Amino acid sequence: MDGGNHSMVSEFLLLGLTSSWELQILLFLFFTVFYIASMLGNLLIVLTIISDHHLHSPMYFLLANLSIIDTGVSSIASPKMIYDLFRKHKVISLAGCITQMFFIHTVGGTEMVLLIVMAYDRYIAICKPLHYLTIMSLRMCISLLAVAWTIGLTHSVAQLAFVINLPFCGPNKMDSFYCDFPRFIKLACIDTYRLEFLVTANSGFISMGTFFILIVSYIFILFTVWKHSSGGSPKAVSTLSAHITVVVLFFGPLMFFYTWPSPTSHLDKYLAIFDAFITPFLNPVIYTFRNKEMKVAMRRLCGHLVRYWKIS
């Protein structure tokens, strides 16, 4: 892998989604709306949970952190992608590309673990309700959150260790709107077959493993709810269905990226839109519209803000 000092390529050309000017204008409007909506929606969730003492519980603590992570997911590649729509040459430096990949995998790995923690939280709340607040104490929640960020950071650093010294001296065109390991590795000046396999297997195994753990966990919880109450608790079923929807939307594109045999497929860059724009936007929609407590708390917060502005 030695040879990073001999690299001749200092930047990469991102081909983006389309070269059509008309489509680029439509995409600019579409992505700008989704980006602003996802940022405002997730920040509103965080502000609502912080300001309303009725929501100071483990479930909402974890939900607020998911929203914080989603603002990060939205901000890593999306602003540059929106800006690049009006640039003829969509370039990113080698350092910028590596930085982008580092944050994508840190935040993505953290969100995977956080979703497992949220599934565990629902398991304790539904299956061991009398011990819920004892088990899911604030200290436990903070510890689990710290573990999630540690695993996400470790995963990202481990991936970067494979590619940080790769030599780039030839093609520099990347058929995407952001940097990620499969396409990045293919541009190196050495035989990268084994390296591609290691990196893809790493992310692919983590994505698929986490997805199946979550799905099995939620099936078990749903079965427990159905078994202990005729027809199941409507509130519990609604909450769990929201969680499952988020899991499917988040992991669907990821499993395609890292398990599909050829990362040169054009489909993967369009599926990446889900994780970059759609999922961060849908998370606040799913968790608020299906949650009465959140809707009441948001109306209460909006009422307070309106009264404050009138007084001012």
Structural features, described:
By secondary structure, this protein is mostly helical. The chain is 75% helix and 3% strand. It has 10 helices and 3 strands. The protein has helices at 21-51, 58-84, 94-127, 132-135, 138-163, 181-186, 193-228, 234-259, 267-289, 292-311, and strands at residues 11-14, 91-93, 173-174. The chain has a 3-stranded mixed β-sheet. The protein is globular, with a radius of gyration of 21 Å. It starts with 10 loop residues before the first strand and ends with a helix. The relative contact order is 0.14.
What is this structure, in a nutshell?
The chain is an all-alpha fold and about 300 residues long.
Radius of gyration: 21 Å
Q: Trace the largest sheet across and list its strands.
A: 2-1-3
Query: What's the total count of β strands?
Result: 3
Number of helices: 10
Percent of residues in beta strands? under 5%
- How is the biggest beta sheet arranged? 3 strands, mixed
Q: Which blocks of ≥5 consecutive residues have pLDDT under 50?
A: 1-6
- Binned, the helix content reads over 70%
SSE string: EHHEHHHEHHHHH
What is the 3D shape? Answer: globular
Distance between the termini: 62 Å
Nearest-integer average pLDDT: 84
**Structural class estimated from helices and strands:** mainly alpha
Key terms:
312 residues; mainly alpha; 3-stranded mixed β-sheet; 3% strand; disordered N terminus
Chart the SSEs and their pairings:
Layout: E1 11-14, H1 21-51, H2 58-84, E2 91-93, H3 94-127, H4 132-135, H5 138-163, E3 173-174, H6 181-186, H7 193-228, H8 234-259, H9 267-289, H10 292-311
Parallel strand pairs: 1-3
Antiparallel strand pairs: 1-2
